[in-house]
Amino acid sequence: MDKPSHLSVVVDLSPSQWHLCGQSSNSHPLPLSAFLSQLLAFLNAHIACNDENTLSVYGALPGKSILLYSSATAVPEEFTGPADPNTYRPFEVLDSTMMNSISDRVEALTDLEQEPPIGLVGALTKSLCYINRMSNASSTSTAAGGVQGPVVLPDPRILVVSVSPDESSSYIPIMNSIFSAQKLKVTIDVCKLYGPESVFLQQAAHLTGGSYIYLERPDALLQYLTMAFLPPPAVRQLLSVPTQDKVDFRAACFCHKNIVDIGFVCSVCLSIFCQPVPVCSTCRTKFPIKTLQRLNASKPAAPAPRTPAPTPPATSLPRSQSIGTPRSSMGNGLVAPSPSRNGTSLPPR
Ligand SMILES: [Zn+2]
Ligand SMILES: [Zn+2]
User: InterPro entries recorded for this chain (predicted)?
Assistant: First the structure.
C-alpha cells in the first residue's frame, strides 16, 4: 500500500431498512449506530494507511443523495484551534463531520407514509463525477505547470454499502453508471448488509472488477470491511479476496421495469421488452406483424423457467441478441448467454 489511493463510499441510509436490519429478531442484528461506528473505524483505517489517501462519502437518503464528507474540502474552522492531545486530528475531523451531516439530514427527514426510493443512483453518479473532477484537476495541473504534481487518484474505487432491495426503475441509470465507471477505470465494490441479493449491484461489481460480498454476519461488518475492502484493487491480486461464485445477469425490461428471465430485444437500439411489441418505444422502429405472431406463439407459458423458448429459425432474423444488453455502445462483456435465458430479437420492418 505504498501508493496513495482514492476511496468513495456510498452509504445506504434508508430509515425503514435500517430499522429492519437492527431488529433483535434477526439472527445477527446490526443497528445503525453500531454500523456507523464500524464504518468510521474503517474510514479512519483508510486515511491512516497512507498520508495521501483521499476519501469522499456520499449518503443515499430517501429521494436524495448528499455529500457527507470529502477530504478535498478545507478543514472546518472549529478544528483549526489547538488539538485534543489524545486524538488524531484527521480522525476527529472525519468522524465529527460525518456524524454531524448524518444527524442533520436524518432529523430533517419528514415522517412520510411511504418512503420514496433511496437516491442510490444519485450518490453513485456523484461519486463518479467527483472522481472524474479530481482526475481532470490532477492532469491539467500537471500539464500546465510542466512539473509532476502530486499523484491524485491513481487507483480510484467506489464502495457501495447497501441495505435496500433493488429498485427496478433504476436499472438503466445504474447500467449507465457502470459504463462510466468502466471508462474511468473505477472499481465498484459492493457490501450487501441486509435485504435480498441485489442483481444490479452484482453486475456493477462483476463488470468493474470489484467484489460483491453478501454479509452472513452483519455484526462482523468491520472485519469484512478491513479484510476485503481496505486493500486497493492492485494489492488484492496478492490476497484472496472473496469474489462472487455466481452473478445474476438478468436485466429489467424497459416497458414495465420488471426483472425478466426471457426478454425481447430491439435489433436496432437493443432496448429490452418483456413481451413482443409492434413498435419499439425507444427508437420507434416498427416490426412486421408476422414476426410478432411468431414470437408470441413461441413465448413459453408463464412460470416455466427451465424450458428455453424455441428460438425462431436463424435465417429469418437479422441478428440474434441475448438479453442483458442495454442500450449502449460501450456495453462490452455484458452478455452471459445461458441455456435457461433466451433472448430473441425483433427484426425491423
Ligand atoms: Zn415489460
Ligand atoms: Zn429500438
Answer: TFIIH_Tfb4/GTF2H3 (IPR004600), vWFA_dom_sf (IPR036465)
More confident of the two residues 151 and 279: 279
| Ligand 2 centroid to residue 187 C-alpha, Å | 31
Asked if 50 and 1 touch (Cβ cutoff 8 Å), the reply is yes
First to last CA, the chain: 57
Structural domain boundaries of the chain? 6-236, 250-349
For residue 175, how far is its CA from the centre of ligand 1 (angstroms)?
17
Contact of 10 with 123, CB cutoff 8 Å: yes
DSSP 8-state secondary structure symbol assigned to residue 338: B
Gyration radius from the chain CA atoms: 23
CA 28 – CA 299 distance, rounded (Å):
43
Ligand with an atom nearest the CA of residue 271: 2
105 three-state secondary structure: helix
How remote is the CA of residue 201 from the centroid of ligand 1, in Å?
21
- The pTM is what? 0.78
Instruction: Answer yes or no: are the C-beta atoms of 12 and 118 closer than 8 Å.
Output: yes
> Which residues surround the ion ligand 1 when the cut-off is CB under 5 Å?
253, 255-256, 274
> What's the gap in Å between 265 CA and the centre of ligand 2?
8
Ligand closest to Cα of 267 equals: 2
CB 347 within 8 A of CB 272: no
Stretch 210-222: mean pLDDT: 91
CA distance 248 to 321: 18
Q: Are 274 and 252 in contact (CB under 8 A)?
A: no
75-89, 289-303, 319-333: lowest mean pLDDT where?
Answer: 319-333
Query: Using an 8 Å Cβ cutoff, are 122 and 65 in contact?
Result: yes
Ligand nearest to the CA of residue 258, numbered in listed order: 1
Contacts of 51 (CB under 8 A, 6+ apart): 4
Ligand with the closest atom to the CA of 274: 1
Expressed in angstroms and rounded, the spacing between residue 346 Cα and the centre of ligand 2 is: 9
CATH number of 6-236: 3.40.50.410
Rounded-to-integer distance, Cα 331 and Cα 178, Å? 9
